[in-house]
Design brief:
- A 6-stranded mixed beta sheet has the order 3-4-2-1-5-6. Strands 7-8-9-10-11 form a 5-stranded mixed beta sheet, sandwiched between helices.
- The protein contains 18 helices and 11 strands.
- It folds into 4 domains: 30 residues; 68 residues, tRNA intron endonuclease, N-terminal domain (MutS, DNA mismatch repair protein, domain I, 3-Layer(aba) Sandwich), CATH 3.40.1170.20; 100 residues, no CATH class; 158 residues, 3-Layer(aba) Sandwich (Trna Endonuclease, Chain: A, domain 1), CATH 3.40.1350.
- α6 runs antiparallel to α7 and α6 packs antiparallel against α8.
- β7 and β8 form a beta hairpin.
- It is α+β, with helices and mostly antiparallel strands.
- InterPro entries: tRNA_endonuc-like_dom_sf (IPR011856), tRNA_intron_Endo_cat-like_sf (IPR036167), tRNA_intron_Endonuc_cat-like (IPR006677), tRNA_splic (IPR006676), tRNA_splic_SEN2 (IPR016589).
């Protein structure tokens, strides 16, 4: 390289390495714990007497003209009997329910509805990473860490073998003795680590070859071959030809992104849907066939019937319906400020998050069990046998569930829901009242919740 070329290379600015896009500000996105708006009073300043007047004025103003905590247009959804869930299709409602309370899950995603963002990134329209990609990155980092740890352990064993080899007179015998000793102590650690390393390397796909910059057809190749015989050299692509393959403009990218139809909807389980409809009053659920609005009383009976498989009739409902037990526990923990999510992944009913799944892992895993403490359930031998069969669990079951939670660093919470006697529903049926006459609040207040926290004790980890 001449001095002139070196000067030109130094004068040209080098391209800065591309930085990954920043992660979303989850503290700002999920600032509200529920999809309702709260209006707190102004703070009280002890050394400023005017703050008391400000508080009094604000209190009287909101007492005379109270602002609405609900959205102007309630969120719409419909009940799907096939999936026994409630579907929300409006994108505004989907984002609001997920960002303010982590309600539901995406039908085409693991938890957060992110199918549209994944599709845009697959087409090269956006550069932001989704939660599924973050999970894949963490798993890849964890896999590399385990491989590095296995390599260091294998090197330590080999170094120890080399140190003990000169002690014996026969080197071959010493090597066999040392290897047998360490394999016995470590349980075949060397072979297992080697096999795991080979499996990991075999699972990693080979990187595809880089695509060529110039593509040509078979006819062009034949022409080029004939031309090469005559000593003709094909011309290089000019700047105008290279500009034809330039990147699309921002307008084209935005138009293509807007043309993608979002094929994902939000799925709410019956407990979440009934909490949003009955407790918060921000969700309206309609019948899928008739588009008729379903009131809370109708949903209460509908969810109870569909908690059985196949769905039962209204006259067959009992106070220990699966929906009633699950919703009582869900409403209880939501009222305590927990973010509660389904826990089928860890063989439990619910998972309790302090703020949400994007901030930290779940601290507690909840298993809901019925408790028949009322004297009515011991009045006859048939009721005693039936209730004992429902509430009795084996020690094998308890140890299995507790072992799973200890492996994922969660504390198991046994949530006992005390079932009242069957007084509410038969009273409605006997007087032939309509479903709308059912007082949901009077039924729910008969249930009580008791919590029992279990933790697996391991002597080698907890010696205090």
């Amino acid at each position: 390289m001449t001095s002139r070329e070196a000067a030109e290379s130094l004068s040209q600015p080098s391209e800065a390495p591309s930085r990954p896009p920043p992660r979303p500000n989850y503290g700002k996105i999920h600032a509200k714990p529920l999809p309702v708006t709260a209006y707190p009073l102004p703070p009280l300043i002890p050394h400023n007497p005017l703050s008391i007047l400000h508080i009094a004025f604000t209190y009287l103003y909101r007492l005379l003209a109270p602002p609405s905590s609900h959205p102007k247009i309630l969120y719409q959804a419909y009940f799907s009997a096939e999936t026994r869930s409630v579907h929300v299709t409006d994108e505004t409602a989907v984002r609001a329910l997920w960002e303010r309370g982590f309600f539901g899950k995406g039908s085409l995603s693991r938890s957060e509805p992110s199918w549209l963002n994944r599709e845009k990134k697959r087409r090269g329209l956006v550069a932001n990473e989704t939660s599924e990609e973050y999970t894949a990155q963490r798993r890849a980092e964890r896999r590399r860490f385990k491989q590095e740890r296995a390599r260091k352990e294998r090197e330590a064993i080999e170094e120890k073998l080399k140190e003990e080899r000169p002690i014996h007179e026969n080197g071959h015998l010493a090597e066999q003795t040392a290897r047998s000793r360490y394999e016995g102590l470590n349980g075949g650690l060397v072979d297992s680590l080697a096999e795991s390393m080979e499996c990991l390397f075999e699972q990693q796909p080979l990187s595809p070859p880089a695509p060529s910059l110039i593509t040509f057809s078979l006819s062009d190749a034949a022409n080029d071959t004939d031309a090469g015989k005559e000593g003709h050299v094909p011309p290089l692509p000019t700047e105008s030809a290279a500009s034809d393959n330039s990147k699309p403009t921002e307008q084209e990218i935005e138009a293509e992104a807007a043309a993608i139809e979002n094929q994902e909807h939000l799925q709410l389980n019956p407990s979440e849907a009934f909490f949003l409809t009955y407790a918060l009053g921000i969700l309206q659920i309609r019948d899928r066939a008739t588009s008729a609005l379903l009131p809370s009383e109708t949903l209460f009976s509908l969810f109870r019937r569909h908690s059985y498989f196949p769905p039962c009739e209204s006259q067959d409902l009992q106070p220990d319906d699966p929906f009633l037990l699950q919703y009582v526990a869900y409403h209880h923990f939501r009222s305590l400020g927990w973010v509660i999510r389904p826990g089928i992944k860890f063989a439990v009913d619910w998972l309790l998050y302090l703020r949400g799944p994007v901030f930290s892992h779940a601290e507690f895993a909840v298993m809901v069990l019925p408790a028949y403490t009322h004297p009515h359930w011991r009045s006859t031998h048939e009721l005693q046998a039936s209730t004992k069969k429902k509430e009795t669990k084996s020690w094998w079951w308890l140890h299995c569930v507790n072992r799973v939670q200890s492996q994922v660093r969660k504390s198991l919470v046994i949530c006992y829901v005390e079932v009242p006697p069957p007084w509410a529903v038969p009273a409605v049926i006997e007087r032939k009242a309509s479903v709308e006459d059912i007082e949901i609040g009077q039924i729910l207040q008969k249930y009580k919740v008791r919590e029992l926290t279990l933790k697996r004790w391991t002597p080698n980890r907890e010696r205090d």
